[in-house]
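Q: Given only this backbone (363 positions), what sequence would you predict?
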């Protein structure tokens, strides 16, 4: 670039002064190279539009002037008045003054006295433990019982006054009377002395040996045989379908071999046997072999009375040993080993319902 200078006017005869030209040099830009261990700073990214809007709104809010605070109301003494609570505003109440002096003497703030329930003061330890108030659940049971007793007494007195002396038979010497159409009953009489009770000895009612059975009446001996047959029903029911040893089968009035010690010896020593002797013989067989008294129908015979022979029309009382065998030979083998006379022991079949019992003798 060329720079031109204007000549400077001088006086006459003088040489003009030389002024050096002004040169403007460009300022070089210093570039600092980035070191290897330093990372280049990334260029800032443009922010999203919604963030810019939110910042703009926050900026507008901070720049807005704050609303002026309402002046604090003061009382006549110069103390500030607290704002009323919502409940006080609805009730239209005004708060009294509450100063620091009120707090020092233990008074509550007005808002605490109005909005919170007041608790009772703690009990004074000098007065002892508090006494529980009496329960109000109802009247005392003793009072109820006394009332019921009084009611019963009143009812008794009233009933006594309504009784008719003419019809009262409880008084001594009173004569029972009745109205028209009513029956007259004689007064009840009760024994005045001690009650005398007579009981027969056990041996007379249920004899346990042949000698006791001989003192019974005919009806009592027959009832005892029937009772013993009823007691053996359960044992006989367990022998159905087996063979047993029959050690006796007699009726009243026939000749029998009972021996002098209630054991047969092969000779008929009794011309006409009685019901007491039949009972005694059964008791003897029970003591010796455990035999039980049965009726013929319990063994499978159609009738308890004989239909032919010397016992026709009379009840037959039988005695068997309650031990079952599979065959009649086994039952007769027991008879041969225990009772010698062949007529006094034989095998008897205990038939189930629908079948008929039968006997197998040893002769």
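A: Predicted residues:
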């Amino acid at each position: 670039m060329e720079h031109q200078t204007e000549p400077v006017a001088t006086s006459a005869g003088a040489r003009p002064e030389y002024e050096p030209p002004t040169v403007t040099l460009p300022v070089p830009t210093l570039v600092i190279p980035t070191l290897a261990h330093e990372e280049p700073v990334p260029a800032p990214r443009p922010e999203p539009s919604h963030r810019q809007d939110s910042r703009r709104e926050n900026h507008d809010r901070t720049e807005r002037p704050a609303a002026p605070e309402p002046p604090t109301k003061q009382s006549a003494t110069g103390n500030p008045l607290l704002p009323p609570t919502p409940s006080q505003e609805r009730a239209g109440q005004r708060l009294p003054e509450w100063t620091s002096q009120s707090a020092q003497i233990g008074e509550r703030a007005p808002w605490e006295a109005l909005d919170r329930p007041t608790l009772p003061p703690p009990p004074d330890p000098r007065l002892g433990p508090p006494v529980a108030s009496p329960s109000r659940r109802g009247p005392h049971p003793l009072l109820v019982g006394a009332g019921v007793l009084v009611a019963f007494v009143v009812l008794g007195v009233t009933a006594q006054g309504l009784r008719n002396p003419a019809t009262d038979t409880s008084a001594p010497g009173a004569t029972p009377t009745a109205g028209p159409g009513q029956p007259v009953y004689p007064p009840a009489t009760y024994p005045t002395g001690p009650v005398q009770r007579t009981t027969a000895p056990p041996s007379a009612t249920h004899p346990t040996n042949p000698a006791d059975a001989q003192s019974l009446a005919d009806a009592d001996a027959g009832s005892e045989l029937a009772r013993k047959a009823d007691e053996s029903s359960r044992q006989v029911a367990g022998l159905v379908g087996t063979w047993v040893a029959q050690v006796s089968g007699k009726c009243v009035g026939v000749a029998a071999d009972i021996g002098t010690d209630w054991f047969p010896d092969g000779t008929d020593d009794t011309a006409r046997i009685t019901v007491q002797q039949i009972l005694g013989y059964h008791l003897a067989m029970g003591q010796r072999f455990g035999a039980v008294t049965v009726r013929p129908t319990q063994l499978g015979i159609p009738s308890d009375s004989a239909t032919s022979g010397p016992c026709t029309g009379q009840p037959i009382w039988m005695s068997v040993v309650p031990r079952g065998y599979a065959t009649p030979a086994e039952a007769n083998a027991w008879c041969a080993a225990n009772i010698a006379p062949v007529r006094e022991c034989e095998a008897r079949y205990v038939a189930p319902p629908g079948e008929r019992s039968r006997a197998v003798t040893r002769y």
